[in-house]
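Record type: monomer structure entry
Structure origin: computed from sequence
Chain ID: A
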Amino acid sequence: MARKPARAPNDDIGEDVRLRMYRMLVEIREAEQRAFDLFLQNLVKGTSHLSLGQEAVAVGFACAMQPGDLSFCTYRGHAHTLARGVPVEKVLGELMQRDNGLMRGKGGSMHLTSEEHGVMGSYAIIGAHLPIACGAAWRAQYKGHSDVSVCFFGDGTTNIGAFHEALNFAAVWKLPVVFVCENNLYMEYTPIGEVTAVEHPAAGRASAYGLEAIVIDGQDADEVYRAAMKAYEKARAGGGPSLIECMTYRYSGHSRADPAKYRPEGELDKWLKRDPVKIYRERLKQFGIEEKVIEKIGADVMRVLDDATEKCKAAPMPPLELLTTDVYADGGWAWRN
């Protein structure tokens, strides 16, 4: 049977991109679940912050990017790292502190970085990466490059000084940077609405910096993709920054140590009905993608994930001498006055 055209009538996204986004959604969902399972087996040490339920934000923005665009993430950065094309083996290896990890086990869950893939770091300090993203965007503007810096952050970051400083700086200089607030309703354990003067912590402040207030459904990868494309086009054309607030929800606690008992009864069930993976699976069917094609994507993802898991389990721990490398910019660790 002949393959359907890559772009169906009245479809501004196209089959090829939709299949790519679905594969990413499934890969991130399964990889995050596998990370949790490995923790229960005592194979992942320390804490980690999962993006279960928030996958569509990472996928939509990553699929709309061009090679050379830069991603700046928070400590909840597994999803954004995978979405930029980093192999799942590299991510799981890093979480398991193995020598085959993305940073040979030295960075861990909260500091995933891959310059090769445009992932310019995951930052554990709240708001620290917003000014850094401005710096990268300023470099692109100064040198006449076309890349866009995309900075992801949580709703709690909007009450940090660096958020306001970065927004003001980017707006004044019309920098090619896109600020993406992943509003999952909670700043760690505290509902963001209880400590913020506006309903939308990011979009509600946009007008103060001359920016459009943009609030989108962060559970719908298509809506995220369209918003990202519009913001990237504006940035590349010299129109300056955008601030986009994505309404989303984390299905697990803030971190593995958090049972999330502070959530109202029924809230999780409500958001589970807006599962981004299920939404997109049904979307593919609506656009005529056959069930066997969808099932094959899931099977392929699990095959790669299972293979990566076994490779990580068999991989050695990093050598001890790795501790004293790359502490300073010269590659060493010796203190110098």
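Annotation 1: The radius of gyration is 20 Å.
Annotation 2: The chain has one domain: 15-252+274-324.
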